[in-house]
Design the sequence.
DNA sequence: GTCATCTGATACGTCGCTGTGTCAGATGCC
DNA sequence: GGCATCTGACACAGCGACGTATCAGATGAC
């Protein structure tokens, strides 16, 4: 279409992507400092050191930015867990530990992500995304960690239970509410996540 | 102090309490229809059929109303679970089922409560209350359902895991995301909640 | 019936955020 | 250097919500 005139050594497209990234980072900063509800176009732009003009260049509104950032987080979680499982041992406990460890590391290394991850539950626009993702995580867990039939409703229920429980515990831990080291937390979560699902075929009766 | 002049057959205090209740109910209606974020003074007043004047008579601002309603919900949950446990059988599964069944009935019978219960996780002002309550639930669970030491950090972690998992599953079920009847859901949750906690003393290795 | 009180409606100024528009100055291209 | 483009700052009208204030009419006490 148009030209690719450089500006400060960057092409139009590079500049655009750079601003997009700045906005996403600023969004996470605001979430970390003041929560999802405080994410406004103006707050984000102030943090990013950009003007509103550039906000609307990348996103139609505040919700679109939040969704984009959340989806990116979910993709990262997914990618890293898949990668971790590739090199994990064969037992359920091995696989559970690999997955939980990866999630823990990710959220512990960037607390901004943790707050977004949690607060997604209460935000009108974010919640559907969060729900769909949790449902997918649950299915993924059944298939790749527990190695059970992912279509069994009871198994799905149990997997959902595990996903939510793991999330909650991680958030409580990240918030300083549990007096345990990272290692102990991962151990415990791995164990909780590796337990077989209940029901007619389950083994926990 | 002042008088107790009747108005439409009610004393000043009765009228005041009546309006307080109307506002709380209206708040729940708005939460059910449009979510916590849509709870504004004006919305609530419109629903309640009252004017803003009476809102500020009972609550300093919107957050205070939300907190009041949430705390009331938590008190109700607690009261009903305590009552259910009084007549429950002696095994962990009996007690788990009694507690889970009570919570399920409560949330299923008033969906407005369910939405508030969930969205509390993502709301700035509500979240601390929700967190503290979940921590108390976890302790309660350890003491009264699993009968374990409520000060053991690992046990607390596991209890928190159960509380969050149960909440999540109930919400998914109430949202129509699980193709299971009430009975099966309660069975499964009761079983998941009755499993012993992991760790040095746990039995799930 | 009269008067004090209570009620419900409405008006108002303020605030924060939105989305668009304008413009001077910086920067790159030739 | 001259010109087109890009940038950042700011102005603006509009909106929805807040919190306060005013006032006429309904209601109860005497």
Sequence:
């Amino acid at each position: 279409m148009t030209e690719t005139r450089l500006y400060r050594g960057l092409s139009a497209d590079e500049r655009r992507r750079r601003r997009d990234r700045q906005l996403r980072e600023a969004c996470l900063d605001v979430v970390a400092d003041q929560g999802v509800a405080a994410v406004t176009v103006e707050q984000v732009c102030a943090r990013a050191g950009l003007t509103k003009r550039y906000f609307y260049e990348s996103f139609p509104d505040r919700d679109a930015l939040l969704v984009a950032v959340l989806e990116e987080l979910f993709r990262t979680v997914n990618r890293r867990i898949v990668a971790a499982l590739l090199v994990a041992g064969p037992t359920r406990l091995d696989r559970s530990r690999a997955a939980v460890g990866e999630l823990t590391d990710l959220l512990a290394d960037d607390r901004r992500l943790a707050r977004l991850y949690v607060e997604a539950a209460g935000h009108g626009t974010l919640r559907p995304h969060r729900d769909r993702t949790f449902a997918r995580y649950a299915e993924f867990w059944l298939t790749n960690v527990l190695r059970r039939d992912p279509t069994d409703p009871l198994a799905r229920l149990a997997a959902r239970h595990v996903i939510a429980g793991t999330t909650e515990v991680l958030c409580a831990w990240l918030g300083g509410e549990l007096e345990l080291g990272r290692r102990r937390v991962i151990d415990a979560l791995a164990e909780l996540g590796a337990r077989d699902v209940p029901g007619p075929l389950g083994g926990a009766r």
